[in-house]
Amino acid sequence: MLASEIRPGTVKAQLLLGMPLAICRDSQKRTFAFRDICPHRGMPLSYGRFDGDRLECSYHGWQFDMSGRCRHIPALVDGATLQTEKIGVTTYPCAEQDGYIWVYLPDGHEKNPTLPEVPRLPLLSDHYRLFHVSIMLRCSIDDGVVGLVDPAHGAFVHQSLWWRTPKSIHEKAKNFEPIPGGFRMTSHTPSRNSGPYRLLKAYGDQLTTTIDFVLPNLRPELVQCGPYWVSMRTTVTPITEHECRMDFCAAWNCFRWVPFSKTLFRFFARVFLNQDKRIMERQALGLRYKPPLMLLDGADTPAKWYYKLKAAHLAASQSGRPMEHPLQGPVTLRWRT
Ligand code: FES
Ligand SMILES: [Fe+2]
What we know:
Elements: E1 10-16, E2 19-25, E3 31-35, E4 49-50, E5 55-56, E6 63-64, E7 70-72, E8 91-92, E9 94-97, E10 100-103, E11 129-137, H1 141-149, H2 154-157, E12 171-179, E13 182-188, H3 195-201, E14 207-214, E15 218-225, E16 228-240, E17 243-252, H4 261-287, H5 301-319, E18 331-336
Antiparallel strand pairs: 1-2, 2-3, 3-8, 4-5, 5-6, 6-7, 9-10, 11-17, 12-13, 12-18, 13-14, 14-15, 15-16, 16-17
Helix pairs in contact: 1-5
């Protein structure tokens, strides 16, 4: 969730992988994640009161500390022998980074889960501006990620005068290489037909962009032009089986001369993501009938890699052996877009 959506001393309900979560922020701005179900009689804890120290269920006032232990049951009479602290609600490791709260849901068999390294948006200088845009998608996580790594829909889905037109289609050859848990479209000069890059070209220096995909759902992109940079990241997060949230964030140290640049960027990012949203939701209508899919070599190869990476990751976590990366070395892909 967006870190800005939760003030100190408040609790918010969220869903992740179909799991209801209550996210709390204490007075020291630290965040905590609970399973959003009271162990007493199932009331979502997020309806309760949070005093910055304990989370109190709204139904019978059971109180939980930030480690999830029950500290108080108002209905117990003096001399009751029930040890409340033996009752607990499941907590999940969480952390704040780049304006988001990241929660880790471990596999059922993981004991004492610790938070894996939280993804970090690359920031190349101390001063920058940052914004976030989120959009809900009615599609499965796999279809969301395949949409995220698809390089060939731009001229049809993101058509507009300032971005692309179908007439601008031309052949592209891009080099890819394996990176841990994903693949990288190596540093290259972005297409001449992509509007926003034209703006950066105003700086005159050599313009390059590097686009990665990293399991489970991250697509970071770094654009550089001399000392100037724009660092973007799109993620698709599974909320339920048939619903995802697409989060886009961007940081940059340029365009100081563009008035209201943050508002403008947010506006364009929203237009762009809404185009993806509309096309993916329409596609989901067809996917309901479970048609076989045809993944072409070239334009659809990144989608094939995604499925292979996911299978390799699952095989590695089940066998305990290191992950066998489906990409053995650098490859060049060609497609028209
Ligand atoms: S349901 Fe939470 S205290 Fe009873
Ligand atoms: Fe798109």
